[in-house]
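Because showing beats explaining, we let one protein speak, sequence and backbone structure tokens together, and leave readers to judge.
___
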Amino acid sequence: IISTLFVLMVVPVFSTTILVPQDYSTIQGGIDASSDGDTVLVSNGTYNENITISGKAITLQSINGAENTLINATGTAIFVENTEDYVTIDGFTVSTISTQSYESTNCIKSNISQVKVLNNVLEVSANHAYIEPTGVVLSGCPNAIISNNIINSHYTVGGSYYGFAMGIKSNESISMISGNEITAISEGFWN
């Protein structure tokens, strides 16, 4: 009788909580130091930076909610790309404004499958032609959850006001869009 012994090794996976600004002075510094499964936890304050989450499945979360934690940016404030999915952005006020014509101006832009945008205040504005300021842009993001956000999007050109709360570029379903308060001057959604 030939018997085969299979040994199953269990390798524990540890997640780490990275504190901003205690461990890293910027949110991007905390994200860069993170690994899959980690949480980047952000203290109260104003953070003047654009953020990219690339190649990591992490949670980006404020300690005390959107009323206490502000991200100021130009162009696209938070860009989520090339990850193994499962990114959560929770509890920020994100404010962005365009600085030039034809610039992409979004609070949060994602092209991953499992993105969650929860409990944020998203304010995007522009004062240049050929810009469509948008609170959340999802490109090919099935299973996204956009919930309990306040989204305000507008721009002014020649006395006219335009803006979009959310843009969805996908032939696939979005899991859940619920509980959001939308103040968009032009349209709530584009597809």
